[in-house]
Amino acid sequence: MRYGSSVEVRLPSELGYEKVAMSTAASMAALMGFSDDRIEDLKTAVAEACINAMEHGNQLNSSLCVNVVLSSSDDELEVKVMDDGRGIDTKPTAPNIDRKVLGEEDPRGMGMFLIQSLVDEAEWHKGPPGKSFVRLVIKLDKENS
Amino acid sequence: MRYGSSVEVRLPSELGYEKVAMSTAASMAALMGFSDDRIEDLKTAVAEACINAMEHGNQLNSSLCVNVVLSSSDDELEVKVMDDGRGIDTKPTAPNIDRKVLGEEDPRGMGMFLIQSLVDEAEWHKGPPGKSFVRLVIKLDKENS
Amino acid sequence: MQAATKVAQRTAKAASGDSVTIVSFSGDIASTSKDAMMAAYHEVDPTVAKILLDFTKAGYINSSGIAIIIQMLLEAHAAGQRTIGIFGLTPHFQKVFTMVGVAKYATISADEASALAQL
Amino acid sequence: MQAATKVAQRTAKAASGDSVTIVSFSGDIASTSKDAMMAAYHEVDPTVAKILLDFTKAGYINSSGIAIIIQMLLEAHAAGQRTIGIFGLTPHFQKVFTMVGVAKYATISADEASALAQL
Ligand SMILES: Nc1ncnc2c1ncn2[C@@H]1O[C@H](COP(=O)(O)OP(=O)(O)O)[C@@H](O)[C@H]1O
Ligand SMILES: Nc1ncnc2c1ncn2[C@@H]1O[C@H](COP(=O)(O)OP(=O)(O)O)[C@@H](O)[C@H]1O
Q1: CB neighbour class for C75 (10 Å; exposed up to 12, middle 13-18, buried from 19)
Q2: Average of per-residue pLDDT values in chain C
Q3: Residue B53 in contact with residue B13, Cβ under 8 Å?
Q4: In angstroms, what is the span from residue B136 Cα to ligand 2's centroid?
């Protein structure tokens, strides 16, 4: 794969469309030679990032797009998922299943944790509208993260 | 599916990336409820349109993008594949297999014919750079084209 | 935009001889599945002590879908003596369910046979 | 960017008792496959009268890939007495191959057994 190829996808902020981004990302990762296991990890991470961008970033306002930029280099695939919200810069925290099962913690709130757990790098950036993003990286030589 | 949702994908003009557009289109069509058969038809049509845009439109110049816009409405999926070339406005002609096997016709030259045969509508438009496109439509109520 | 979640309920015998209610989910397991999934869970007779959640035919699963399963674990925990098992997940989702802690409150098995063998 | 086309050659017996050379292609069947596919075709002994092209393990096929197969049909036609059959295509690609006329010069069968039965 030529160094620096990139693919861009724009999705409406409508739940369900994250599946389109999952397919695009999976296909790009397959072109780069990632294993099926790593592609599954990437798909879940991309889905969660897109859902957050739609729900929390764009408040499900269907006139706003989620922009996904997939950039390949020799040994890694970088995915940026951008939204029009204010973004977030706190780190994900691990869900506490005991507290969840006791009803002391929202049963949701696992997306950022999953993203961080499934990819090799994950960073959240606050930015002006359209420039808040999460950046994920999966590395080709690191078959098991 | 909400009337008028659209997804946009930009690909580098590099052979192989048509597979990314195929996956994106297939996933969008699956969301809309198209059958697996129709999705296969769409995938081949989208692949051929992207290859033509890369090869003939953008002359495989990797700094030029192919832009694919997928627009859903109640009963159809429209796909526009745009390139930076001068475009084409001739109709596809059916390949003549006898002449091909005799070496009297290029063995290639089947892409436009396949596109037209596999989708419900196909139109080629000449335009200024970035605005030449082929427009494909598959219809939800027409399960066998 | 999400594939409607479909639900089916049946009964099977565990290795222990106990009766087990199996609730099968197909389609997407996502936020839109909540009503269908919780209704299916509430339809199970309250006296049933062993439940298996079958995801063999589930397609796409996201974290909001996993939260619905955690909601079931919460209700089972609050109600007391009820064991919940999960089967039919792909290896990827077995890993994901384990990552978020679900495996602490529900045994995760590859398929129905191994799930029943453990109950 | 395209999955390298891999090729394997083996021999089988047709229903008629004749020996058949089977050339199997896996990976993408696209413009980048041309050298590998034509080299595999040229490696078949020129005296072999019956060839089957096996696409069971092929993934993505596009019109440039089909053009390579037409090139084989052209060479077989020019050389005279050689029968070419094709099997292992999905129903979609059986349809596509038929649309462009390939079925006029090569019998298209679903699988190896039905391909051999016809030779
Ligand atoms: N793209 C985003 N823009 C703004 N806030 C976000 C974004 N992504 C996540 N958040 C915040 O982080 C919280 C945790 O996100 P997450 O772990 O994915 O769980 P959930 O989405 O289920 O709440 C969200 O509830 C939201 O407040
Ligand atoms: N996007 C395009 N821009 C310019 N010319 C095109 C485009 N698509 C097709 N063409 C022209 O039409 C011809 C036939 O295309 P096609 O049927 O797809 O076969 P092939 O690409 O194998 O030549 C091409 O050779 C090219 O001259």
Answers
A1: middle
A2: 95
A3: yes
A4: 15
Give the tens place of pLDDT for each residue, C43-55. Answer: 999 999 999 999 9
The residue count of chain D comes to: 119
Mean pLDDT of C57-85: 96
Q: Is the dihedral of CA C6, C7, C12, C16 positive or negative?
A: positive
Using a CB–CB cutoff of 8 Å, tell me whether B74 touches chain C. no
Q: Measure the CA–CA gap between A40 and A24, rounded to whole angstroms.
A: 13
Contacts with B20 from chain A: Cβ below 8 Å? 7, 24, 27-28, 31
> What pLDDT score does A1 carry?
41
- Ligand 2 contact, B57 CB (< 6 A): yes
Which amino acid is present at C21?
A: T
Q: What is the mean pLDDT of residues C8-25?
A: 96
What's the confidence (pLDDT) of residue A142? 54
| pLDDT higher than threshold 90 for residue A129 | no
Average pLDDT rounded to a whole number, residues B134-139: 98
Closest listed residue to residue B136, CA positions, set B20, B44, B23: B44
Residue D76, min C-alpha distance to chain A (Å): 34
DSSP, residue by residue, chain D: --PPPEEEEEEEE-TTS-EEEEEEEEEEESGGGHHHHHHHHHHS-TT--EEEEE-TTEEEE-HHHHHHHHHHHHHHHHH-S-EEEEE---HHHHHHHHHTTGGGTSEEESSHHHHHHT-
Q: Is the CB of B108 under 6 A from ligand 2?
A: yes
Dihedral sign (CA A45, B43, A83, A72):
positive
Stated as kind and residue range, the H or E segment containing C19 is strand C19-29
The pTM score is 0.94
Give D75's contacts in chain B (Cβ within 8 Å): none
What residues of chain D score a pLDDT lower than 50? none
DSSP-derived letter for residue C5 is P
How many CB atoms neighbour CB C39 within 10 A?
10
Contacts of B63 (CB under 8 A, 6+ apart): none
Pick from B7, B43, B82 the residue to mutate for testing the A interface (most A CBs within 10 Å). Answer: B7
Tell whether ligand 1 has an atom less than 6 A from the beta carbon of residue A108: yes
Query: At residue A83, what are phi and psi to the nearest 5 degrees?
Result: -135, 180
pLDDT the model gives residue A145 = 43
Mapping DSSP to helix (H, G, I), strand (E, B) and coil, where does residue B58 land? coil
